[in-house]
Design goal:
This protein is of the alpha+beta class. It folds into two domains: 5-155 and 382-421, Alpha-Beta Complex (Adenine-n6-DNA-methyltransferase TaqI, Chain A, domain 2); 183-353, DNA methylase specificity domains (Adenine-n6-DNA-methyltransferase TaqI, Chain A, domain 2). It has helices spanning 8-11, 110-117, 120-126, 141-144, 154-182, 184-193, 196-201, 311-323, 342-346, 355-393, 400-405, 407-421; strands at 5-7, 12-17, 23-24, 30-33, 38-39, 42-43, 49-51, 68-71, 73-74, 82-84, 93-94, 98-103, 131-132, 137-138, 148-150, 206-207, 213-217, 230-233, 250-252, 268-271, 273-274, 282-284, 294-295, 299-304, 332-333, 338-339, 349-350. The strands form nine sheets. Strands 2-12-8-10 form a four-stranded antiparallel beta sheet. Strands 3-7-4-11 form a four-stranded mixed beta sheet, with no helix packed on it.
């Protein structure tokens, strides 16, 4: 049995740009989804922003239950990221870099459409319609509407969703476990040393510049993704948990390999330039393989050679200060970004812990990173298995046996579907 393929325009009642409105850190504003809000196909409530409008304004732009938000202005590798709105928080609007797709539920289930938008098939189909600029890429609504999706009858769509939901539930549980584990290290720091913000603003401690810590800014390189090139760590490689993320590694020409830009195990990477909410993210560099790794001009490398602190302690302290939004207070600001200079960083007063406490924290930090690496590997296996299921689901393979058992009902549904969509050949 062959499924018909129809355009997204034929199965949606709305595809609309997001609102271009000023965003605010004021929680009294209206909740708004942003690119950062999208996580594993769902809207992460912990990353909701706030718009500079009040509840009741622009109510026609509120998302409805089952709406899908899709990133259409972003870096090229993140174009097409999408999430399902499940009704919380309410009301909720979407920002200008996101599109809203509202399924015609007489023809397509929102969850089925969401899963299709996450397939390799969909992401391959949008590549030709991506418009590329210097620092971002985009796709237009008019081009997106012409993308075609396989369309089985609603009952078979439901079966596809049921299977994929079961597989995706394992990935969600793993993500929840990761989130809980990420809270262990901050809790340990607070228990052993106290509030990091209070510590650095108390006037105690010693300026970072008076410790034996070597600082080095990275370098900018416009040429990227060089075949056979050297990995070049950038802003996106430090995640919100203060851990290196190797999902997207850029490579630069071999002639950019200079000793002062080479990272070694135990180096601390500090995000010195970025938007105001991201400056100060910090992580410990632990190489995932034997390759040489370099770092960009948005990052500062701190190499610790002082027995009074450890790289683990310094990385933990700096990243917790980021979580407390300390670094905007010592940053220089431009239109769309902020920078913490080396001089500002070296003036930071670092509290010196007791030797025993330092050893305990350092060992715990190392053990937690090791456990996290194991979770990442198991998560990668789950993700790979889910990706295989996801792509097989839209060929009809996953529901073949189920289809045989429900053939009579399916034929009737397909006949009705063909009439509604004016399809001559199903």
């Amino acid at each position: 049995m062959k499924w018909p393929h129809v355009t997204l325009e034929n199965v949606t009642v709305l595809i609309r740009n997001g609102l271009s409105i000023k965003q605010s850190s004021d929680a009294g504003g209206l909740p708004i989804t942003r690119i950062e809000t999208i996580s594993n196909g769902f809207i992460d409530p912990n990353r909701i922003g706030y718009a500079g409008i009040k509840e009741g304004e622009k109510s026609e732009w509120y998302l409805k239950l089952g709406d899908i938000v899709l990133s259409h202005i972003n870096s090229e590798e993140r174009i097409g990221n999408c999430a399902l709105y499940e009704g919380k928080p309410y009301p909720l609007v979407h920002g200008m870099n996101l599109l809203c797709l509202r399924a015609n539920q007489d023809r397509i289930l929102p969850k089925y459409l969401l899963y299709f938008l996450r397939t390799k098939q969909f992401h391959q189909s949008i590549k030709p319609i991506i418009k590329r600029a210097v620092n971002q890429a985009s796709i237009s609504i008019s081009n997106l509407k012409d993308i075609r999706t396989p369309l089985p009858p609603l009952s078979e769509q439901g079966r596809v969703v049921e299977i994929l939901d079961q597989a995706d539930a394992l990935r969600k549980k793993r993500a929840e476990a990761d989130a809980k584990a990420a809270r262990i290290l901050p809790a340990l720091f607070y228990k052993m040393f106290g509030d990091p913000l209070a510590l650095v603003t108390s006037g105690d401690g010693i300026p970072l510049g008076d410790l034996n810590v070597d600082l080095q800014n990275g370098f900018a390189c416009g040429e990227k993704d060089v075949e056979g090139g050297i990995p070049h760590l950038r802003m996106n490689n430090i995640d919100d948990a203060g851990v290196l993320n190797f999902e997207l590694i850029r490579t630069v020409p071999l002639d950019r390999d200079v000793e002062r830009y080479r990272l070694v195990k135990g180096d601390v990477l500090f995000m010195g330039t970025n938007s105001e909410d991201k400056i100060g993210k910090t992580c410990l560099f632990l190489p995932p393989d034997d390759r040489t790794y370099l770092f960009s001009n948005h990052l500062t490398r701190l190499r610790v050679s002082d027995s009074r602190i450890t790289p683990e302690y310094l990385a933990g302290l700096l990243h917790l200060l980021w979580s407390k939004r300390f670094f905007p207070s010592i940053a220089k600001r431009w239109v769309n970004q902020s920078t913490v200079s080396q001089s500002a960083l070296t003036a930071l007063r670092v509290p010196l812990p007791a030797e025993r406490s330092l050893q305990v924290f350092t060992t715990a930090f190392q053990n937690l990173l090791s456990l996290r690496a194991q979770r990442v590997r198991s998560g990668q296996i789950l993700d790979q298995s889910f990706a295989i299921l996801l792509n097989r689901a839209f060929t009809g393979d996953l529901t073949a046996k189920w289809r045989e058992a429900h053939m009579k009902e399916l034929l009737q549904e397909m006949e009705q579907q063909a009439k509604e969509l004016k399809i001559d050949d199903c």
